[in-house]
Fold this sequence. Notes:
46% helix; 10% strand; 145 residues
Amino acid sequence: MEKVQEKTLFxxxxxxxxxxxxxxxxxxxxxxxxxxxxxxxxxxxxxxxxIHKQSEIFNSEGLTFALIEQGVxxxxxxxxxCEALEATQATWYQGKLYTDxxxxxxxxxxxxxxxxxxxxxKKSIVEQRGVQVNIDASExxxxxx
Length: 145
């Protein structure tokens, strides 16, 4: 009887060189004001790829793996957001910080929104594109004759 080699269902997740560079650049303070397109261009993606493949690149398993290699784990990301859910009001007055037990709803809402986005619960707006086609009736009249 011939021995059949087992095939694995899942290939190991690996990050490409560009995905690793992107992960590194995403974590640099000076790049936090860059939009996604400019960040992709900075690490060497083509202009067309930076425009049309943003979502695919930023949601790829390779980039997720590269971020984990950089120490960005779900636990590390969610910890401050979970702490924000318990935020209370605080005010600086004459160089001193005064805290209150009243909830800071603005901070709590931001934490909840971040958690919802990370968990995929937040709906995103999808850009719709339309195409206008102008046809002269005389060009298609023979189809109805």
